[in-house]
Design goal:
alpha/beta, seven-stranded parallel beta sheet, 13 helices
Length: 369
């Protein structure tokens, strides 16, 4: 069977889908990947997958560009002749599905988050809902990563209920993301991991660190992740340099080996405005790291308040600072208990083997239709 996995960027396919793709490949299927091209395209090729580029501008709202994108997908899918196409991210989910349905190819989509459009209602939100409706109601299967996103789509009649299923994100390799406490440090280490975007709560994190620094000196705040300047909500390199010069954060750069940094931290902080189901939160849970995150869809689904971490109010710097202070002042035994609970939950709920099975079942079901 020929299976296409289509996303907006190669990074996304490589980091979120490689275990699933390898498992399908081991079953004898031929795997094609489709996305805009970045350095991870070559990593996908090295893994033994075919790579096909589409010219995709994630920030563009130009309808003519989007029409051209549909034609790109149409030509590419017609050439590959896949048995099924799995989409992820907004534009592939919408425009890739439209192209696939013109060709009569079964589609499995993954709504991995509603993005900035659904954080604040606007004309663009209404347009997005319309586009989702004409595309997702034609999809053979639609996965959601949290219940709120699923209910939002049902309420607005954007999907057919019998084609939907909620799955626990993209899963985590519980045998790779394992606890390993670094005992050499004397300072308590908070770590923010993710793209440096406003919607990830990076400003709230920095402001909360400033508040804590007026009262404590026994901790450090660190940031790991790319600036991602192609995104409209990205912070600037100047912002980051100012924070480093101020001494409020230590910037750790970006890496493909995030587990080592998680293992070397004491608490992960992600004050995101909304997620599909945060990959970094389930990875941190598997590592046994206590978490502080916001009480919003895609974050609260991972963290059990006061059990595996602490939930704070979204966009509330003072509440975030209070929760970080609370975590800082917990004794080691309490934080260890939270970490153990987080690891247990990761094994029970977020093991990537669960997601791989659900995807395989969906693929075989839609192909047999």
């Amino acid at each position: 069977m020929k299976i296409v996995f289509s996303s907006n960027i190669s990074w996304s396919i490589y980091n979120f889908r490689t275990p699933l793709l390898k498992s399908l490949q081991e079953d004898g299927h031929i795997i094609y990947t489709v996305s805009s091209k970045d350095k991870y395209a070559y990593k996908l090729i090295d893994e033994g997958f075919f790579f096909n580029e589409v010219k995709l501008n994630n920030n563009s709202t130009n309808p003519f560009e989007d029409i051209k994108l549909v034609f790109q997908y149409y030509k590419l899918y017609k050439k590959i002749k896949p048995d099924v196409i799995c989409h992820n991210a907004i534009k592939p989910n919408i425009y890739g599905t439209i192209a696939a349905k013109f060709l009569g190819i079964p589609v499995v989509n993954n709504i991995s988050g509603l993005g900035t459009l659904f954080i604040k209602e606007s004309l663009s939100t209404q347009i997005a809902k319309f586009l989702y409706k004409i595309s997702q109601r034609r999809a053979d299967k639609v996965f959601f990563q949290n219940t709120e996103d699923y209910q939002e789509f049902l309420k607005n009649n954007l999907v057919k209920e019998d084609s939907c299923e909620v799955i626990p994100g993209s899963g985590v390799n519980i045998d790779f993301f394992v606890p390993k406490k670094n005992k050499e440090r004397t300072l308590f280490r908070f770590i923010f991991i993710g793209r440096l975007l406003l919607d990830k709560g990076i400003l709230e994190y920095v402001k909360a660190l400033r508040i804590l620094k007026t009262k404590y000196s026994n901790f450090e705040g660190t940031i790991l992740g790319p600036i991602y300047q192609s995104n409209n909500t990205a912070i600037t390199e100047e912002n980051l340099k100012d924070w480093i010069h101020e001494g409020v954060v230590n910037y750790l750069g970006e890496t493909d080996h995030v587990v080592e940094y998680m293992q070397g931290a004491d608490c992960l902080v992600l004050p995101s405005y909304r997620e599909g189901l945060s990959k970094v939160l389930i990875e941190a849970s598997s590592v046994g790291l206590p978490i502080i995150t916001t009480n919003v869809p895609g974050c609260k689904d991972v963290v059990v308040n006061e059990v595996t971490g602490l939930l704070c109010e979204v966009k509330n710097v003072n509440d975030l600072a209070l929760k970080m202070e609370k975590m800082l002042n917990y004794n080691e035994e309490k934080r260890k208990e939270m970490g153990v609970n987080a690891r247990k939950r990761a094994i029970a709920v977020f093991d990537e083997k669960i997601i791989i099975t659900q995807y395989k079942n969906a693929i075989h079901k839609v192909v047999k239709k």
